[in-house]
Amino acid sequence: xxxxxxxxxxxxxxxxxxxxxxxxxxxxxxxxxxxxxxxxxxxxxxxxxxxxxxxxxxxxxxxxxxxxxxxxx
Length: 73
Description:
The chain is of the alpha+beta class. It has one domain. Helix content is 26%, strand content 38%. The chain is built from 1 helix and 5 strands; from the N terminus they run βββββα. It has one helix at residues 54-72, and strands at residues 7-11, 16-20, 28-33, 36-40, 46-52. Strands 1-2-5-4-3 form a 5-stranded antiparallel sheet, with helices on one face. The longest helix has 19 residues, at 54-72. It starts with 6 loop residues before the first strand and ends with a helix.
């Protein structure tokens, strides 16, 4: 069974990254970290992830990954 890759969208006007995991209507969302929301459908399945202030949040993630890569060399 081949799974579809998630769709990723970035809105630079509001600095938000959205990852569509599954089509569906959002019933609720859960904030799992400041500025990171997981959207759920009525069955409780994850349908998307929204990252607000994405450039700021992801900058620190990329720095951490870069440090890990440098440490392995």
